Amino acid sequence: MITRDLRDDLTSALFHEAELLDDGKVKEWFEGLLTKEIDYRIPVRITRERLSGRGFSEHAWLMKENWHSLRQRVMRLDSEYAWAEDPASRIRHFVTNIRLEEGEGSDRVTVKSNVLLFWSRLDSTDFKLVSGERHDEWVREDDTWKLDARTVYLDHTTLVTPNLAIFI
Amino acid sequence: MNPEVITLPESVRRILDQAQESIPQGLLPISVFNDPDLHKVEMERIFGHNWVFIGHESEIPHRGDYVLRYIGEDAFIFIRDEKGQIRVMWDSCRHRGSQICRAESGNASHFRCPYHGWTYKNTGELVGMPAYKEAYGGWDRSQIRLHEPAQVDSLYGLVFACLDPLTPPLDEFLGGAKWYMDFYHGLGEMEVVGEPHRWSVDANWKLGCENFAGDEHHTLFLHRSMWEVGAIQVPRDRMSDGYHVQIGNGHTIDMGMGPDPDESGIEYMDYPKEITEKFKTGHLSKDQLALARQSVIHVGIVAPNFAQLHLPLTSDAENIPPIPVKTLRVFQPKGPNEMEVWSWCVVWKGVSEEFKELSHRVLMSTFSPSGIFEQDDVVPWLSITKAAGSGFARLKQPLLNYQMGMEGVGVSKPVPDWAGPGTAYSPRFEEGNQRSFWSKWLRDMLVEPSKVSTP
Ligand code: FES
Ligand SMILES: [Fe+2]
Questions:
Q1: How many CA atoms lie less than 13 Å away from B96 in the CB half-sphere?
Q2: Burial class (CB in 10 A: 0-12, 13-18, 19+), B306
Q3: Please, where are the H alpha helices in chain A?
Q4: pLDDT by residue (tens digit) across B120-142?
Q5: How high does pLDDT run on average in chain A?
Q6: How far is B81 from chain A (nearest CA, A)?
Q7: Closest ligand, as measured to the CA of B371
Q8: Looking at CA atoms only, how far is residue B213 from chain A in angstroms?
Q9: For ligand 1, atom 1: residue with the closest CA
Q10: In chain A, at which end, N or C, are there fewer CB atoms within 10 A of the end residue's CB?
Q11: Ligand 1 atom nearest residue B94's Cα
């Protein structure tokens, strides 16, 4: 059952996650908030005629990650030569419209949320906004809610940022 | 003086005059990377004249399948028509110009213009309009069809189009580049996996092209973190082994070579045996076969803006050894200071689903907007474009350096008795591949393309 407590817990988990990512604590995010089974994906989106659906590809992704490939991404951000994120991007996740659906058992819940991501780099006044919806699976492990699966459905077809060295 | 050149805007003439003097010395005016007037001239003289990559035949396998593609900044429908013929058609209505194809991909027997409803078959013929009798009274519309580029042709499934009827045919345009494609694309039929990645970069399109022409020097430094995490395992100190080839017409290939294939495990660009034993090699000469068997890395461009890259990489160095990935690229201009990068993953038809999936995944992890290789490439490209559009650049006309490999600069030397077309240099630390791209660009920029129109 989706109780008020459960909703509070998951809302806190999402906000905590956003804080870690926005503060550049990607390692803490990876080590503390993801399950070993994590399935993280961002499908490519294309403009299709209305009858053909919303245009999310079933064959191409901007990211399609498991724990190991995420680990390589996170490790590489630690390098002195990770030019894309040094200086770090200034990012801010605005997470809203949080919706819970019951999962299997009391320790698993489906969470949908909308996300708006502010992204700016170096001393430029320019910024980009990335918008999308996230479909997550969260599971309770030792009393902590952890992210088990996420699909980010972007509101963009052609990606608006020159690279994607951050997590949405 | 060429009368055409007189019609050019002052800033363009200045950049081209400077480039004519500097490019032979391995120097390039920085302004070529961000000048609005120069960009307009490029749209005519580069994209109005050259063969431009449209897509791969496997992207539209069935009759009626289409995707939207670009020549310069213009949208074209790339379609397999009802008779199975591959066509490229300008996405603009013959009535009063509206866009008729508004999805990026799909399947259609007809396209109907949203403005007044002129309707075209997927062969391009105009076949209907609402109230035909009342409005047009039996007017003969049978000669009207969508505009098409003057020439469309393909090689090994790669489809190119050219707006200029006077440009030599594709095989002549590719010239020696075909010899090098024979022992990659010619080894078997290839297919595209999934939809291409498209992403927008606030940088000039030529920065992608000159990089993919072959640039190991940046790999060592900009991409150093790739060795730290083990994503690439070709030894760092062997990165210069191999050849840069300036094929002619601005086309280049850059091959990283492994040890002698007869002495070690590597064979055919590191592809697994289950794939290489299906390769067709009967059409290859002894020299082509030797290069195919021994090369590990292939990078190169077909000028002006088509590129390819093949190399073995991994997305999980601890558990999965590197496997070969292959990407086709277009660096599509979108104004003087923006491009859209297009990237297709391709594999040989008939490879196992496991190989296909893993290769696709590894490519995405390394060469894509989220790829840990490619994340870093855009960092310099953004800043070069900014610098190129600055007041300092306009005032001082600074020159950039492309001299590595020229007399007295570096150690790379022409390879004597090179078996293939073009001039090969070894080791790969040299910028002749970039200089050949720029020489071709300059030649094009000095000539007005033919304006002969299609019917
Ligand atoms: S503009 Fe297409 S029907 Fe009129
Ligand atoms: Fe690079």
A1: 4
A2: buried
A3: 4-22, 26-33, 67-77
A4: 999 999 999 999 999 999 899 99
A5: 95
A6: 19
A7: 2
A8: 21
A9: B96
A10: N
A11: 2
Helices A67-77, B353-366: inter-axial angle, 10-degree rounding: 20
Taking each continuous run of H as one helix and of E as one strand, the counts in chain B are 14, 21
Q: Which ipTM score applies to this complex?
A: 0.94
Residue A142 tokens, joined:
């030792």
Q: Which two tokens stand for residue A31?
A: 């080590």
Tokens of B251: 């086309």
3-state DSSP assignment of residue B346: strand
Mean pLDDT within A125-149: 96
pLDDT at B259 over 60: yes
Distance B66 CA to ligand 1 centre (A): 21
The answer to whether the beta carbons of residues B280 and B292 sit under 8 Å apart is no
Ligand 1: which atom is nearest the Cα of residue B117?
3
Distance B218 CA to ligand 2 centre (A): 7
A4-154 adopts what CATH topology? Answer: Nuclear Transport Factor 2; Chain: A, (3.10.450)
The residue contributing the CA closest to ligand 1 atom 3 is B116
| pTM score of the predicted model | 0.96
Other Cβ atoms within 10 Å of B104 Cβ, number: 21
Q: Which atom of ligand 1 is nearest to the CA of B98?
A: 1
Domain boundaries, chain A: 4-154
Please name the member of B195, B202, B231 whose beta carbon is closest to the beta carbon of A44. Answer: B195
| Per-residue model confidence as pLDDT tens digits over A141-158 | 999 999 999 999 999 999
User: For residue A75, what is the nearest residue in chain B, using CA coordinates?
Assistant: B229
Give, in degrees to the nearest 5, the angle at Cα B260 between B255 and B262. Answer: 130
Residue B434 CB-density burial (10 A; 0-12 exposed, 13-18 middle, 19+ buried): buried
What is the layout of strands, in order, in the sheet containing B323-333? B190-201, B339-348, B323-333, B306-313, B295-302, B251-257, B242-248, B423-426, B413-414
All domains of chain B, ordered by start, with CATH?
52-154 (2.102.10.10), 175-446 (3.90.380.10)
Q: How far apart are CA B195 and CA B183, in angstroms?
A: 26
Q: How many CB atoms are closer than 10 A to CB A90? A: 13
